[in-house]
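Subject: for your reference before the review

Hello V.,

The reviewers asked for a structural picture of the protein, and I figured it would be easier to keep everything in one thread rather than splitting it across files. Below is the amino acid sequence we used in the manuscript, unchanged from the supplementary table.
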Amino acid sequence: MHSKKPFYILVALLFISGIAASVYRGIEHKVPFLPGKQVQSWAVDAKVRFQGTGEPTEVSFALPNDPAFEVLVENATSPGYGLTISDDPQNRRAIWSVRQAQGQQDLYYKVTLIPTGITTIEADESPIAAAPYIWPAAEKVAAEQAIAEVWAKSATNLSFAQQLNKALNAEERSQNIELLLSTNSAARLFVRMLNNKGIPAQEVSALYLEDQRRRQQLTTFVEVYNEGEWHLFNPADGSQGRPDNLLLWDRSGKSTLDVIGGINSQVNFSMLQDTRSALATSLDVMKNQGTLDFSLYQLPLEEQSLFKGILLIPIGVLMVVFLRVIVGLKTSGTFMPVLIALAFIQTTLLTGLIGFILIVACGLMIRAYLSDLNLLLISRISAVIIVVIGIIGLFTLLSYKFGLSEGLTITFFPMIILAWTIERMSILWEEEGPKEVVLQGGGSLFVATLAYLAMSASWVQHWVFNFLGIHLVILAVVLLLGQYTGYRLLELRRFKPLAGE
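And here is what came back from the structure prediction:
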């Protein structure tokens, strides 16, 4: 007797691989597990305006760099200008250039962003602390005293930054802080005092995202490094952490906008919140990242539509295996119900049932006449196929004449399968009588209906096409069902009298 251990190992591997592949696709590629899910996106427009002086002009503008948002689509409009976007992921910039710019100039940058759910900012490597700031003579003593006072109340670099941020925004600030704030902005003073203690910190430009807002300006925040992570502070109001609607636009530590050959430069932002399909969003992100090369979405739309139907077949097969092996239903043909269920998807259930019954009934009557002619099997089957095509054509014309548009869809029925079904039922009628024909025909329609209900469910269609690993799980379940040798559920009726004794 052969050991079944290799078989169960194979089933376990198929099951685990299928689940792992599906979960990975959902988490890593952010493909939604349920259809119809929506995500919020932000469309942000940046308008750069300056006065050209008639000289060669170069405009360098920082582009958004925030792990909390994924750039979905970006483009720039700059008539007459050359445009280059730097490839440095840590310092992406758009650089416009033109030989001569005279008068008012308007340049536009548009970007569509989606939230990634990442709220922390991890550092790729430990930054080098900036050199200590050399205070002017009038501020040196005040700065040293203020730093020493706050330093004594802290235990770590992060707690020092927290206490310092609190001191800068206290209701009753010390005279030293007041003196320093009179000549320094809150953010710049915050960074300088941190750097004097060897703590890496830098100013960053951020944008508050508010729906349907125009002419917005960037807000200055400060990032403080501590144990592999950047922590965000707002010295202007004493808050710590990032609000949900905050976009870090420029984290390079350099100026956001540089204009050579122009004066009076400024940048304003407008934004709009939108809702879009989570599936379409994940596909766009994968396309941008180059991870869509071996996806079915790379195929032309016609082939995609074809595969969406083909990949439903394993669901119907699973239904047939379960209903025949476990329940014990009889069908005319092993997998004929699956093909009929596919036709039902095109015709709708009620129209498909009526059309199937009418075609098979008419086909059986004509098949009864053909049996009296004692034709060879091949000729008889060929004749049945031709008759089925004629019946479908006749019903289609009648439906059109009476204005029944639903009847036009019966052309989706697989004609060869219908012909073989009529042939099997006719032979069954001759050998075992009409009761067995009704039993197997009814069983086939019942299985086809259940398979249709499973295959037409939107979440099933979503899963089998977007999570191909689910087919490995179906294969594992089919293999397990193939090992079942017990009684079918319908066979238990035969033993019911024994249970009562």
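For the response letter, the relevant points are probably these. Residues 346 and 412 are 7 Å apart (CA to CA). The longest helix spans residues 377-401.

Happy to draft the paragraph if you're swamped.

O.
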